[in-house]
Amino acid sequence: MKRRTFLTGAFAGTAALALGVNLYLPNITTSSDDIHHRVLFSVLIPAFLDGALPEVPSHREIAMNRTLDAISQSITHLAPDQQQELMELLELLEGRLGLLLLSGSMTPLLMRDPQQLVEMLEFWRYNYLDMLKTAYGGLRELIMASYYACPEHWGNLRYEKPTFLVNNLQ
């Protein structure tokens, strides 16, 4: 056997094995919503909301959970085709092959440090591919809108809920 034939065969076998592992979806019975990919969003929220989240750990956890609940609620209000696109993006980000295609690394987002996440998102933001710009914009808008939809976060914006005066006309 020639060296070139061996290397080609080894490469093809490794690629087939990697593709098979990534395409294999075990039959796990979970909720159909998969709790809206809470773990993935909990990794992305600090990257998008840098400086807006509270510094105190207990307050930060409360704000994160409140934002995750708001994201779940926001997703239910999206058009069905937008929901499908978002779920496809989230599933790509959760799979190794999709992550490799979108970020250039197979390291799961959960195992990356915050600076690596920011660099990945900035790469998407200024990429020449409209698909990556759209993915960045969609995730950013969803997270930002969900965070600031909660009245307790309006103080960061110096926004106060309007009050309406009721005139008593007699």
Automatic annotation (TrEMBL):
It comes from the Bacteria. Residues 1-18 form the signal peptide. This is TAT leader-containing periplasmic protein. Keywords: Signal. It comes from Shewanella psychromarinicola.
